[in-house]
Write a structure and sequence with these properties.
Elements (H helix, E strand, L loop, with lengths): L10 H12 L11 H13 L3 H5 L6 H22 L3 E3 L9 E6 L2 E7 L4 E5 L3 E5 L9 E4 L2
Antiparallel strand pairs: 1-6, 2-3, 2-6, 3-4, 4-5
Helix pairs in contact: 1-2
C-alpha cells in the first residue's frame, strides 16, 4: 500500500515562501516548466523529493514532450497517486493543490495559491495567473 504524502505542519508558509522565490524566473525545462513547478510545490509542502524522481523526464523539451505524449495526463496522475498524492474533486481545489490539464501534445500544470495560480509559459516564465486564464483542470491532486 502506498503511503500518502503528508503536508508539513508549516506547509502553507513553506509553499508561499517557495512560490515567491519562483515568481519571475525564466522558463527552463526540467526546473521551471509547469509540471516541474507542480512537483516542486508538492516537495515544498511535504519535504519530499518527487522532483528528483521525474527531473530526467523533463530535462529537455524533447524529453518532456515525448514523456507527455507517452503517458498523457492520466498516466502522470496515476504515477503521482502511486507516489502518495490524493485525488481532489476539481470543485474542491484549495491552496497547495495542483491542477493538471491536457494540452495539444503536452500536459499543463498549475499550483493553486488561493485566488491565483502559479504556472509557467515560454513567453512569461514563472508567473501568477488568474483562474480564468487557465484551462479547466482534467485532474486535481493534493496532499492532506
Amino acid at each position: 500500500m502506498t503511503r500518502a504524502l503528508s503536508a508539513l505542519p508549516d506547509w502553507e508558509i513553506k509553499l508561499i515562501a517557495w512560490a515567491r522565490g519562483e515568481k519571475g524566473k525564466l522558463f527552463t525545462w526540467g526546473e521551471t516548466n509547469c509540471v516541474a513547478l507542480a512537483l516542486r510545490a508538492l516537495d515544498a509542502q511535504c519535504g519530499s523529493d518527487l522532483m528528483s524522481k521525474y527531473r530526467r523526464h523533463m530535462a529537455t523539451e524533447t524529453r518532456a514532450l515525448c514523456w507527455a505524449r507517452k503517458h498523457g495526463t492520466a498516466g502522470v496522475v496515476e504515477r503521482l497517486l502511486s507516489d502518495g498524492c490524493v485525488a481532489v474533486e476539481p470543485a474542491m481545489i484549495q491552496v497547495g493543490d495542483i491542477a493538471l490539464v491536457d494540452l495539444p501534445g503536452n500536459i499543463g500544470a498549475a499550483v493553486c495559491l488561493g485566488r491565483t495560480y502559479l504556472s509557467s509559459t515560454l513567453e512569461r516564465g514563472v508567473a501568477m495567473f488568474e483562474p480564468y486564464h487557465l484551462a479547466a483542470p482534467v485532474s486535481v491532486l493534493g496532499v492532506r
